[in-house]
Specification:
This protein is an alpha/beta fold and 430 residues long. Helix content is 57%, strand content 13%. The protein contains 17 helices and ten strands. A six-stranded parallel β-sheet has the order 7-6-5-8-9-10. It has a four-stranded antiparallel β-sheet with strand order 2-3-1-4. Strand 6, helix 10 and strand 7 form a beta-alpha-beta unit. 40% of the residues are buried.
Length: 430
Amino acid sequence: MSVLVVGISHNSAPVHLLEKVALDRDGVHKLVHDAAGCEHVTEATVIATCNRLEIYADVDRFHGSVEDVSRLLVERAGAATEAILPHLYVHYDDGAVSHLFQVAAGLDSMAIGEGQILGQTREALRLGQELGTVGPALNVLFQQALRVGKRSRAETDIDLAAPSLVSAALERSGAAVGDLPGKRVLVVGAGSMAGLATATVSRLGADQITIANRSAERAARLAGEYGGRPARLEDLDAELAVADVVIACAGATGLLVTTEMVEAARAEERPMAIIDLALPHDVDPAVARLAGVTLINLAELAAELHESEAGREVLEVRRIVTQEVAAFLSARRQASVTPTVVALRSMATSVVESEMERLQGRVPDLDEAALAEVLQTVRRVADKLLHEPTVRVKELANETGAVSYAAALAELFALDSEAVDAVTRPEGLG
């Protein structure tokens, strides 16, 4: 069995498509059930956030399962297949493990290191357990992902990376338009990064904060938290005309702020700082050529972040994730050969017992002491013959490649497949 992830997130899709696949609690429950009901899926659960919808499934084959699971997300979007499919991403087996660990560690979040995703990962596991769609494979995977997320935050200050990014951007903008007190700030977007940016400018004393977002409800909610005001994305031209600092972090496909919009908004070429924290870009890079406009983009900030303490924390978390993925995959590969090894030793035990019975029948007068000595000797011979193959098959399991050494071992010793399956099957599952 292998893990499959099919998802859509702020890294792959524009906001309007993310909004189309947004689900309430009942919708998430139904999606989990539908995923678990796919032909080649044995276990399933879903991570659902405002910026992410991902189906995790344990599958017995890639082709077939990926089509079925992808179709579920397309159906939720209510959009034409060709509109949604290019924005889906797929991770399989080792790649799926790596992706989930990165998600839990906060490396895949819009606001790097944000802690909310850890709770959302825990909720996905709990939901799958509650609905009976999570079994041994996903349970072990998600439990380890949660440990990776906790370790990343316990051993590093990854949760400070995103605030450092915003602070660095605002520090640079200050050189262009002055300190924030008395300034009007326009935040484009209402996700986790927008929330962080809004909290930061509020703390630094911005005179007026406006939140422009496609979803009026989310804009109003974020604005209300910090005494700001909501605005519609359709009114962006008017909002740009009164803003001193613009922080764009919607992550939409296609530019939200164009050069023409900025040029038309700036009467008498007044100074303006524009901070583009989105991936993909929300702001046309050409606005940097306008006189009086200072554009600060994510690439520049990321370069600065790399050299900063926060950047080193991100690199350390990446090292932790890489280490944890390698350890998990190694343990999983070794565990995959255990049923074959157990079945092999069980077969050897049966052979020893059978031969001892045969010996007793042929030599009925053999005394108990001699019989015990013979039994111990035969067992030692069997153990020594099996020791090297079983040790080597566990070592070879860690080597990459197409060869299944466990399958080869089972074939060479003609092991009963039902005996191997009996070892693999968790107690209570039939």
